[in-house]
Design goal:
Elements lengths: L9 H34 L26 H5 E8 L3 E8 L7 H6 L11 H19 L5
Antiparallel strand pairs: 1-2
Helix pairs in contact: 1-4
Length: about 140
């Protein structure tokens, strides 16, 4: 099976299409990163206390319960260009404001993981893939 196509309109039209695609990709990545950071913050907003008021830990496999809000407040999103044609959304504790974030996400020898980034990443990746597909089909993101 063979597919062929031709393009007419000159280099100006091609450059216009390239810019439109780059803008669409940047918008899609920005929106995905913002949605992911919102989802992470939302998952970290749940708190639980015992009858006598002591904070309760979340169950392993669930996002950590909110105690001080430091982890939730540390979640940030930054978008940057990656070379000529790509964009990167960095989401998480980007500045090390909650040094225990890694231990909660991945667990330790004595504490089972309480992931809060991975679930948002998986959901965000699916949404981003859909937006890129729509962009490639000529839609807007």
């Amino acid at each position: 099976m063979k597919f062929t196509f031709s393009f007419s309109g000159g280099t100006e039209k091609l450059e216009e299409l390239r810019r439109a695609l780059a803008d669409g990709l940047e918008n899609a990545v920005t929106l995905a990163g913002e949605e992911m950071s919102d989802e992470v913050r939302k998952s970290l907003a749940v708190s639980a206390r015992s009858a006598d008021g002591r904070p309760l830990a979340s169950a392993p496999g669930e996002p950590p319960h909110r105690r001080t809000g430091r982890l939730q407040d540390s979640v940030a999103c930054e978008i940057s260009a990656d070379g000529e044609n790509g964009f990167v959304a960095a989401v998480g504790d980007l500045y090390g404001d909650a040094p225990y974030a890694k231990a909660l996400e991945y667990g330790t020898e004595t504490v089972r993981p309480r992931p809060f980034l991975l679930p948002a990443l998986l959901t965000g990746a699916r949404k981003l893939a859909q937006r890129v597909k729509e962009l490639a089909q000529g839609g807007n993101t």
